[in-house]
Structures are given as C-alpha cells and as structure tokens.
Design brief:
There is one protein chain. By secondary structure, the chain is of the alpha+beta class. The protein folds into three domains: 2-93, no CATH class; 100-186, Roll (Pdz3 Domain), CATH 2.30.42; 190-338 and 362-436, 2-enoyl-CoA Hydratase, Chain A, domain 1 (Alpha-Beta Complex), CATH 3.90.226. It contains twelve helices and 24 strands. It has a six-stranded mixed sheet with strand order 13-14-15-19-20-24, with helices on both faces. Helix 2 (28-46) packs parallel to helix 3 and helix 7 (252-262) runs parallel beside helix 8. It is globular and about 70 Å long. The protein starts with a strand and ends with a helix.
Length: 440
C-alpha cells in the first residue's frame, strides 16, 4: 500500500468536520457509536469505491470498528483498507517498528530461512544474516509450525516482555541457538548496496526493502535513499539492478524521490502519473511531472521482484516503463494499483478518539494510462529465490539472472528451472498496516 500527503489535504484542514468535536466521555457506548458513524460517513465521502458501500447500514450491528470496515469495503478488489491509530501510522511510515526485526521465506530446497534482517533490530544486533536456516523455534522443530502452504511461528505480540528462542543453521553447516527479545527499533530500508563490474560495465545492485520517509525530514523524503543514489552516482554505474523482492510499499513521496533520480534527463518535466479519487472528489484529481535530480543517466532498469513486491514497488515500475526499458526478473508482483491517505485529519471524532481510518482513496495511472494491474506485473524471466544465499551472492538465481541479462541479453533456461511456487509468501501472514511493512 502507498500513502501520500496531497496539497489539497492541507487546504482542507480545519474546514472539514463531519461531526461535532464534542465527545461524551462519560458514556463510552455513545462515544463508540459516534466513532462508528464517523467511519461510515468518512467511507462514504472518501472511499475510492464508495458507490459500492451498502446503504442504510446500522453501524451498531458491528461489534468492532474493524468489523464495520470489513462490512463496508468492496471486497472484490479491496485487500488493503485498515484501521490503526495516528501514532502507529506515522511510526510505520517513518520506519519505527517493533518486534524481533527479521523476515522469513521458503528457499528453493523447501527449507525455511531468514530472508532479511534490520540492522538496529534485536535480530540485527544479535548478528543474524540472510541465509541462516531456521530449524527450530522455542524447542520445537520448524515442521510443527507449518500452516497450510506457509508457516506460523507463533512468536507472540510485539511487546518488550516477549522473548523467543531460535535454533539456526549457518551457511558453514554449524548450528547456533539464540534467544532474543522484542523491542522498538528504527528500520533500514536499504538492506544492501554495491557496485561491481560485468565485462566493461559498472553495475549497481540495490536491495530496497520499503519506501519509508526519514523521521523529522521536511519535505518528506528518505535520507537513506539519497545516500544510496549518491553512492551509485559516485560509482559511475551504467546499469542498475533494483531488488524489490520483499518490498511491500510505503510512501509515494519517497517513490517520487527515487523516480526523479532514475528518470533520464531527456524526460525531465514529462508526465509521471495522474491520480484519481472517487467521482465525488474528482475535482481533487492531480497530475505529477518528473523533476530530474542527480546525475544518473541510465537507459534501462532491471527489477527483481516477487509476490511480496507491492504498491509503491509496482508504482515505480509502472511510471518509469513508458520512458525506459524495464526488465522484471523473479516472480510476478502482488497487484496493488491503488493507494490511501489517512482520514482522521478530516474528522474530529476519529481524531479525538485516536482512530486512524486508512481506506483505499485513489488510483494511479502512468503516462500511458495504465492503471489496473490487480494481478500484478508479470515477470519477463522467472527465477527462484534462493534464500540460503546472502545479499550480493551472485549464486542467488535472481541476481545471477539479472547479471546474465546485462551480459548476454537473456537469462538462460537455468533461471526458470530454479523457480518454485510455494503458494505462500511472508506478506500473507500480515494484515492492515503490517501488510505494508511485514517483519517478525
């Protein structure tokens, strides 16, 4: 999912109040009813598919705010609308997370591996690395955590009193048992970056995990992204491989920051995308043009993706495709061509009760008008995800396929042979806000 702060949103601040800001703190039932009515009213006003909202809804028939939201959404397409709190929303989009701080995935050998680790998280501070095999959790073999096609590790809530013990097999074959707790930490979106040579070309490899803005930075942008782009400029790269295989989305502002750096200067000022709200809000539809930054001049981009690549990850592919050659390697993407912004700022009742409503509110089309890719972007070349290989290891089938494409213009049949659809991705274990930034 991606979220954006529109200029018109700020113009409306203080002007839009669907209900009175006076709350009856003495009667919780009345307050809860008012919040439910505020959710219903806000959905009818801002929801992208508001034409499909049932009429005459009795909000009292729903026992929870989340239950009410589920009763209002257009379930045929909407897998993303959610309710959280304003503080949790802001924390997530600036990279402030809680938990152990790692991801998991099923490798090409059907075993379970650590897929990524955030540096400042408990797992990161304990030295965990991508490629470590998970063989037991809390003394139980990993096979006992199998759930359908995937795994449910039963790690408990993300509170500081929770600890879990993991038995891990390292790449050298040795085993280690680690007990780590959960805590708040600041994520790093850039998991890996390097420059290497392929024949006579200098190639950048960028593993980018989420489109998160840096806390306290105005205008909204990522200093990590800026540093990575400067790194690739200084490396004088002629090709760039962007690895988005576990990137569930995030901030559109940060996506724009990346696109403005990657677009060739010849396309400066051309249409990046148009956004469309529901028919009642069409006067707020806007267009956005490229504003070239930096000195990178690339003819094409190679994207590594998976079914965990969603939202803002798909946005940059869609917006750059009309102007550059884009090659997609790995697995078809998730399929989320719509986005959201939080609505508590437009409703005093939601704000006063610490309720953040984040429904789908807009869709985005690229310069060619492409706006509906609910089945995701198909790959040009299938390749397996060998999670036993750490970042930058060119024995990883997806990275190897990208390098082969740069060298030979194709990836060879071995890339497809490494691919296996496990019917599960880590993103499937998460919902709501956490679906955008999934981590354990």
């Amino acid at each position: 999912m991606f979220a954006r702060k529109y200029s018109f949103l700020f113009l409306l601040l203080g002007l839009v109040a669907l209900v009175s800001c006076t709350e009856d703190e003495e009667v919780p039932e009345v307050r809860i009813k008012r919040v439910k009515e505020a959710i219903y009213a806000s959905m009818n006003e801002w929801y992208f598919w508001n034409d499909f909202i049932p009429t005459g809804v009795n909000v009292q028939q729903y026992s929870s705010y989340e239950g009410l939201l589920r009763g209002l959404v257009y379930s045929q397409l909407d897998r993303w609308s959610y309710i959280t709190t304003p503080s949790e929303f802001n924390r997530a989009f600036t990279g402030q997370q809680a938990g152990h701080g790692f991801g998991i995935g099923i490798g090409t050998d059907d075993n379970l591996y650590v897929s990524f680790v955030y540096e400042a998280s408990p797992a990161g501070k304990d030295g965990w690395q991508r490629g470590w095999e998970v063989i037991a959790v809390n003394g139980r073999p990993i096979s006992t955590y199998r759930s359908g096609n995937g795994y449910n590790l039963q790690l408990g809530p993300n509170t500081s009193d929770i600890q879990n013990t993991f038995t891990l097999r390292l790449p050298d074959g040795s085993e280690t048992t680690r007990t780590i707790g959960k805590s708040d930490y600041q994520t790093n979106s850039v998991l890996h970056r390097e420059v290497f040579k392929v024949d006579d070309k200098r190639v950048g490899y960028w593993v980018y995990n989420s489109f998160r803005a840096s806390p306290g930075v105005t205008p909204t942008k990522s200093t990590e992204v800026e540093q990575a782009l400067n790194y690739f400029e200084e490396g004088q790269i002629k090709e760039l491989i962007i690895d988005l295989r576990y990137n569930g989305g995030g901030s559109v502002n940060v996506a724009e920051q990346i696109m403005n750096a990657l677009i060739p200067s010849v396309h400066d000022g051309k249409l990046m995308y148009t956004n469309a709200l529901n028919s009642d809000k069409s006067n707020f539809n806007e267009t956005y043009e490229f504003k070239k930054t930096g000195n990178l001049e690339l003819d094409r981009l190679i994207f590594i993706t998976s079914r965990g690549s969603a939202s803002a990850s798909e946005l940059i592919i869609n917006c750059l495709e009309p102007y550059m050659e884009t090659v997609i390697i790995g697995e078809n993407t998730y399929g989320k061509p719509v986005g959201s912004f939080p609505l508590s700022r437009y409703n005093n009742t939601l704000a006063a009760n610490d309720v953040e409503l984040v429904p789908v509110t807009f869709a985005i089309a690229n310069a060619n008008g492409k706006a509906e890719y609910y089945d995701g972007f198909p790959v040009d070349f299938l390749a397996g995800d060998d999670i036993s290989k750490n970042w930058g290891d060119q024995n990883d089938p997806r990275l190897r396929a990208a390098v082969n494409y740069i060298q030979f213009g194709t990836v060879g049949p071995q890339a497809r042979q490494t691919y296996k659809d496990h019917g599960w991705a880590m993103i499937d274990n998460f919902s709501g806000l956490l679906k955008e930034f999934p981590a354990y």
